[in-house]
Design goal:
The chain is of the alpha/beta class and 339 residues long. 49% of the residues lie in helices and 13% in strands. The protein contains 15 helices and nine strands.
């Protein structure tokens, strides 16, 4: 039987609101920190299927969330495309050589790098109760491209935005290549046991409207159409962080089943403007969860009230912060579930 989360993503409204949290498997959990210290580097942990499955399941055991999100990283896709990848402590990811210095044709795609991730999914699904939805994900092409071009994260995605303006044909080929590999990756996750997938476009907010149309809406629509063709029963959640008013076009034109809302989106506005009956996910500020207290409780009540008339998955506006107190997450769970 489908769980509450999967039913909600398929458009069924319930008096009970399912919940999961972006980055729920991570550094705020002492059991994660203990395993990470034992295993060493982040990438080693991701490619160790048994360890990655354990990390994925940790927040389910502790909080009883309705969804288990695969423990991995959006940069697994460029790594499989042949770009070098390492995570440096205190500095974040480094991809080599960056595409502002190299050509995509210089890389050799290695789809076998996905195999460990697929095994993680199989291990998780075998251990999860049927009521818990197994969630997979990938980065959207624009966001993945920002790392591939610059070789690292950046505040304003300057190098990638500049390349898109100066050489749109070359940048289009980069986007198309990422989309093609992403489709393969997501299909593999679904075949391994994932029941719904999320497309993370963490840097969508940096684009002008015409660029958003070309580099966010169009490739996400292509990926969603491909998934729907091969796996029509698998819901797709689109999360274009920072999209603002462009979220409406995104929801209407990408074909996604549900949209994730970041913390800057007014829930009342979103409910009024988004297509009627479309499931929404979000959108508590992760910093408010870190702060906790009465303000957290009040905001949870407001979000729930705004989305009471449509299918709603409670989540954060982005990933949970590593310094978030466990007791605040417990407070959140109690507030959402009314206990």
């Amino acid at each position: 039987m489908p769980g509450l989360l999967l039913d909600t993503l398929k458009g069924k409204r319930s008096d009970k609101v399912p919940m999961w949290l972006m980055r729920q498997a991570g550094r705020y959990l002492p059991e994660y920190r203990e395993l990470r210290a034992e295993k060493g580097g982040f990438l080693d942990l991701v490619y160790d299927s048994e360890a990655a499955a354990e990390v994925t399941l940790q927040p389910i055991r502790r909080f009883g969330f309705d969804g288990a999100i695969l423990f991995s990283d959006i940069l697994i896709v460029p790594h499989a495309m042949g770009q070098g990848l390492e995570f440096t402590a205190g500095e974040g990811p480094r991809l080599t050589p960056p595409l502002h210095e190299a050509e995509l044709a210089d890389f050799t795609t290695k789809h076998e790098r996905f195999d460990a991730v697929y095994e993680t999914v199989r291990l998780c699904r075998a251990q999860l109760d049927d009521s818990v939805t197994m969630l997979g994900f990938a980065g959207s092409p624009w966001t993945v491209a920002t790392y591939m071009v610059a070789g690292e994260g950046s505040r304003d995605q300057h190098r990638t935005r500049e390349l898109a303006y100066l050489d749109p044909a070359r940048f289009q080929s980069i986007i198309d290549s990422i989309a093609e590999v992403t489709i393969t990756y997501l299909r593999g996750q679904i075949d391994a046991g994932v029941e719904a997938v999320q497309l993370f476009d963490s840097w969508a907010g940096s684009l002008a409207p015409d660029q958003f149309e070309r580099w966010v809406i169009e490739p996400n629509a292509a990926i969603t159409a491909a998934i729907k063709h091969s796996h029509p029963d698998c819901p797709v959640i689109g999360f274009p962080k920072g999209a603002g008013e462009k979220l409406i076009d995104y929801a209407r034109r990408t074909g996604v089943d549900a949209v994730g809302l970041d913390e800057t989106v007014d829930p009342a506005w979103a409910h009024r403007e988004l297509p009627p009956g479309m499931p929404v996910q979000g959108n508590l500020d992760p910093l408010l969860l870190m702060a906790g207290g009465d303000a957290l409780k009040a905001r949870v009540e407001f979000i729930l009230e705004c989305f009471a008339a449509r299918p709603h998955v409670f989540n954060l506006g982005h990933g949970i912060g590593q310094h978030t107190p466990i007791e605040h997450v417990e407070q959140l769970v109690a507030a959402v579930r009314g206990s």
